Amino acid sequence: MSHFSFLPTNLSLPAAFALIPLYIIARIVYRLTWHPLATIPGPKFAAATTLYRAYYDVVCDGQWSEHLHALHAQYGTASLNTPNIQQLLKVLSILGTVVRVGPNELHFSDPNAHADIYGTGSTFPKDQKMYRCFGSSKSVFGQTDFHHAQKHRAALGPLFSRRATLKLEQQLQRHVDNLISRLLTYETTRKAADLHLALRSVTLDIVTSYCFGSCFNAVDYAGFSHPVAVSMDATLHLCWVFKHIPILRTLTDTCPEWLGLALMPATKGYYDQANQLGAQIDEILDNPQILANSEHDTMYHYFIEHQGQKHGLPGVKREETQQMTKKEKAKMRLWLLHEGLNLRFAGSETVGNACTMAAFYLLRDEVVKKKLVDELVRAWPDVDESLGYEELEKLPYLTAVIKEALRLSWGTVTPMPRVVGPTGGVVAGVAVPPGTTIAMGNTVLHRNPDVFPDPLHFSPERWLQPDSAATLDRYLVAFSKGPRACIGINLAWCELYLILGNLFRKLELTDDGHSSLKDLEFREYFIPLYRGHHLHAYVEKTRGQ
Ligand code: HEM
To answer: Which chain regions cross the lipid bilayer (predicted)?
Structure first.
């Protein structure tokens, strides 16, 4: 929102240049004094310029979400300098729960703010300034406009319904069985397996075969280090550079690959994935009949089967793709590419992180691990039989372990920004002016000691209290909430139960002794990128049960 515009339009070029510093100074003065957010506590530098945020995003290598904790602590006790009693009361009522973190941006810490920003009934659009940096503006995730996104979700939603997930459970189970067999090969070598990469690989295989009908077999790759599984982290840090210098995003999207690679070698992972997925899309658009041979419905079936058109999107019938003009095909290709790249990413890193976090804490706490294993053995006495998702989800301790792992793996770690509409909004009792960007980070809510006492302690027991479903579940926001919540939530829950249930029923895992809490420090690039040693474990087959 620009509240300040004073430059005359008929200036000569040198005069205009001479006025630029004046314009910048005037804008800063305005932001610090007359701007509608001027009375909200927060660092003056952040109120003056977005360079403040860029510093924590880019220079500090993804440290914004950590810094937010410090800001709320600091501005919860800040001394006030307000000119009148109304303003004083206003500031006192919001003190500590909201901080002005940018010229036009507020961050909230009041637990109730989450529902106001993201919950049922919220129609705030996503903030384009951030979401465009991911380069997937045509995907469900990248659609910032609320109503457009709802159409898109309606077209893709059935692929991720509970029914659709249950239908494909056996396929998921095959990937999990493969993971268990691969991990068992480490029993003979007596080497510790990289669980972080193993779990990332199985979730990558699951999401790719679920959404695209084929996968990389990343689990079979030596050391679980398939290039795609590894390259996702290698590319992600560029997103904040793209956010603060959007022209670089445009250049990456439009320039030839060789030039993009020469200018930014770190984009190789992105190009590799885009090329691989692009080849599959081309094959389907050229010969859509191959969809008929697919073992099950995929993302392509949901778009290239009239579903898209039904919901007002550029969907086509299978037989119609051959009659599409070159331009229409290119449009369709880009759309499918954005969707595919996003689903591959959204569906593998997140589930992989949650599983790794569960394993990390279970391997450090014998008491918690034993409770889980005892429950699994009771429910699943014969390990050679299989136990399905619908049986596993009835197990209270396993469910509590998963919820606690979701809480401490955060889901996304970057506060997801939304923009208040032209009539303004109210968040946690604070009136927010039109056009303001608002957000509340999952780490801030999941670490709130009033909601989750001793928040950094992994305690499945907190989810087993008689009233926890009523009191705690609404504050577990790893999947976000409301109309823009995670569309893959059913698939994710199914994966979490199958992977963790099988892992801790069939294998005896022992930490290799090199992991510590320090390894949980992360760089924040929408999702957490852990800095430390990957979790490794010695693997044995479960015995005597
Ligand atoms: C533990 C696993 C997962 C977690 C914690 C998680 C978390 C989230 C969160 C927090 C959002 C909201 C993002 C935002 O508002 O910008 C989201 C959106 C989304 N997720 Fe997930 N996710 C998980 C698994 C999956 C899976 C398995 C898929 C599909 C393969 C998926 C696909 C999506 C999509 C397409 C969106 C965009 C929805 C929209 O913007 O309307 N996610 N997810």
So the answer is: 12-30
